[in-house]
Amino acid sequence: MPELDETASSAPPAERLRVIGNGWALHPPRSGVGVYTYELFSRLERERDRIDFRILMGSELMDLASALAYTERRPEEPPRFKAAWTKFSFDWRRPIRGIRHAGIVAYHTAHSGFSPIRRMLGRTPVIGDQLKRLSKFYRESRGARAIEQQKAEIDWREEPVVFHEPNFVTPFLSDQLVVTVHDFSFVRYRELHPVERLEWLTEGLDRTIRGASRIIVPSEFTRTELLEMVPEQDPERVHVVGLGHAPDFRPRSADECAQRLKDYDLAYGRYCLFVGNLEPRKNLVTLLAAYERLPDSYRRAMPLVLVGAKGWRDADILARVEALEVRGFVRRLGFVPSEDLPVLYSAAGQFVYPTIYEGFGLPVLEALASGVPVISTRAASIPEVAGDAALLLEDPRDVDGLAAAIRQLQDEPALAAEMVEKGLRQARRFSWERCVSETLDVYRLAAEDASTSVSKR
């Protein structure tokens, strides 16, 4: 990725776009896709000189503050009906019609990753089939009608509206759809995903990709994979837009971290950090095995701290973590508040992320920006993010190699200091501001696609 040029896109566009973003990924706990959606949408709201931006939650169009409040409600709760676009403000004067509560509940029951009702009922053949039918009804009919009503009220050549799905699969298709496809781990490593997630992605992503006007991917690696898997896709419509890191991810002194570390009973620079959901793709099995091979004195002086929510297929991982916690050299903190995470990064002695597959690798970037030496792997997109600023293992499952890398960074402070300096330089190549600017460019192209389509009718 070329060096960031802050002046390259400072000139305002000729026309102000209207953009609707699907906000369902904002539901907590927010991991990679949720963080991406939040950081992107929060900054898009500030670009009011460039776009009129609204977030779609169920059947409602709203601003970010309202969307975050909405996520506190259960997905099954009937949404309150709001109203549609006005020209220059966030007041909505005409009701959105055509989305029914049954369809919304069915969609999120059949497809969301966090619905207990889906897990309970979706596996029952008769009920599961009915849920999927209702879901399809909502996705392809009612939801689409809501967006179509917006379109009907606007002269497309003057005021185009773009719909952005930031989380793989759109609930309905739109003529000017922009979708973000984060990775293809569900294809490359099907055995590492729950059945429900495989069904959701398999059934929905192909339709979404083929129906999209423009596709955003976070890395050149993911772009290559997409074009290999969908060879008929026009390469010029697939755009690489890297992620960023928030300003809170920065180096900190021991004094700055003292209070938060006291809350977690941790010592500055005296723990090894992992951040990520507890799921097989993150390769915690190898990390735990590597830690077991370290000398006992090292493990007690430099415990392994695990931060992240429960994922899927994690029973074996949790059992191993609990066994090692009893022995005193592993600490599992679970999902931590967003204000605590940057401190935990910057106070770590090193960050270890032996992932098997990533579409980007946001935790690696956050660690680099926090001034922490990083150990990861050469898997998938990680070399694009880490550059030469991390120790990268050729084989993610090399237990001995990972243990040796952990020891090397601890035993060679000059090497660790060099990695920190390189990491800070590498992290400056990525920013959420750049992500927003390049995403706006993609929106503009999608709007031009729509205008061209209308002019040919």
What can you tell me about this protein's structure?
It is a single chain. Helices cover 45% and strands 12% of the residues. The protein is α/β, with parallel strands linked by helices and 457 residues long. The chain folds into two domains: 17-244 and 432-455, Rossmann fold (3-Layer(aba) Sandwich), CATH 3.40.50; 254-427, 3-Layer(aba) Sandwich (Rossmann fold), CATH 3.40.50. The strands form two sheets. Strands 3-2-1-4-5-6-7 form a seven-stranded mixed sheet, sandwiched between helices. It has a six-stranded parallel sheet with strand order 10-9-8-11-12-13, sandwiched between helices. Strand 11 (350-352), helix 14 (362-369) and strand 12 (374-377) form a beta-alpha-beta unit. Helix 10 (284-292) packs across helix 16 (399-411). The longest helix has 28 residues, at 125-152.
Total number of β-strand segments?
A: 13
At the first level of CATH, what is the class of the largest domain? Answer: Alpha Beta
The major pleated sheet works out as:
7 strands, mixed
Biggest sheet strand order reads 3-2-1-4-5-6-7
GO molecular function, one term: glycosyltransferase activity
GO biological process, one term: lipopolysaccharide biosynthetic process
InterPro entries: Glyco_trans_1
Domain Glycosyl transferase family: 271-423
